[in-house]
Amino acid sequence: MPVARTRAVALTGVEGALVEIEADLANGLPAFTIIGLPDAALGEAKDRVRSAAANSGVELPARKVTVNLSPASLPKHGSGFDVGIAVAALATTGALALDRVAETVHIGELGLDGRLRPVAGVLPAVLAARRSGARLVVVPWGNRDEAELVPGIRVVAAATLRDVLALHGAELETPAEPVEPIAGPPVAAARETGGDLADVIGHPEAIEALQVAAVGGHHLMMLGPPGAGKTLLASRLPGLLPDLDVDAAIEVSSVRSLAGLGVGSALETRPPFEAPHHSATMAALVGGGSGLIRPGAISRAGHGVLFLDEAPEFSSVVLDALRQPLETGEITIHRARTVARFPARFQLVLAANPCPCGQAGTGDDECTCTPNTRRRYLARLSGPLLDRVDLRLTVRRVGSVQLTGSASGSLTTAAARERVAAARRRTASRWGQEGWRLNAHVPGAVLRGPRWRLEPRERALLDRALERGALTMRGYDRVLRVAWSIADLDGDDRPLAEHVGRALFLRKGI
Asked: Rounded to 5 degrees, what are φ and ψ at 11?
């Protein structure tokens, strides 16, 4: 028999590449060999395929079967190649239409009883198959809704290996018994931030800063004692952000699929909110793993908010790992045989107490920390990391008059979101043709260039701060970006001296 061929998808990060699965049947002692740089899970596919075929009423030939995954230099991970390997191996017997098999992309894991088990990463895998020109993809029944989110490619959902073989023209003698398809992973609900901005009592400057952050995509740090409302404020930021556009929704949903969180029958349209515990490891925050590389919290927070509560309690090594993603908007993870890239365009929100006991600056004279202890505590947040944070606020406790004087604040989340949306439309009309959607994405060289440079009288405060050494060059550019966001929020065409002053205060407000 000629060599049988079919296709599958190998994922590296959110990117995928088509893999050609070749199967050859030769004389010799019965054996099943898989070559082409498989990992341990993929190497075990031969046992799953043999049992699944036998329990589906078809037998692998009692001869030497060699399966090659090409290109052999590309690492392959996981059990999503099982169906393709089984189809290619069985096609060597002549029972399947070779031309139909060769045109199909197969994704899925096999159970020993022949049922197809859902796998993680189906959405980016089907996207990669469509971009590579594939027209037909077979997926497990439990991944059907997720796969059908990709337009321009025919999706066939199969419950068992028998269904796949029948699709390719196999004549199965024994009648199929009713089989309950394996359901997909439950769709993990996005973290519920809950509540309304009107629930925040007091803190008018913090509410204004949240809106500025939402307009421009700026990073934010809040410093204050326990109970001042830092977590409450951070949880309201995602509600101010507009719905995701189609490209961002696909990216967010692809990362959720890779993380095994499930996608369901609709793309995720709301910005995500991730709040990892301060004991999170490097791999948990930025992504990684010894075998299959998984996205971390910064990728799951893409196009949304990453909130690090009690930021000084995080490992300093973990915190400093955020510096590069904050600049580039992606995380690149290198391993010995592969490089995986994940999107990491998120808004960082840090919250910290002023000292280990949290009472410094409260006026209660209860702080027992020495000045040196306070300095060491906040020094866990390195200067290079803080230099990438645009807005810095001191959040103080609410007094009894504010707490009992009114039931709620005056600005609701709906009203604030509309104000933010109007400001983002001004931003888009200015930068849209250049490919930038947010002020935080605009290079500093453009803002300092001839076309967009502010007048000397408008940037006088900023220039003096740079000359005194109170700002770095990066900080100078970030203040300019915040000033543009404040101007957009106020409905002005260009930042004025007032906007620059407010932006400088928000930069140096701690």
From this structure: -95, 135
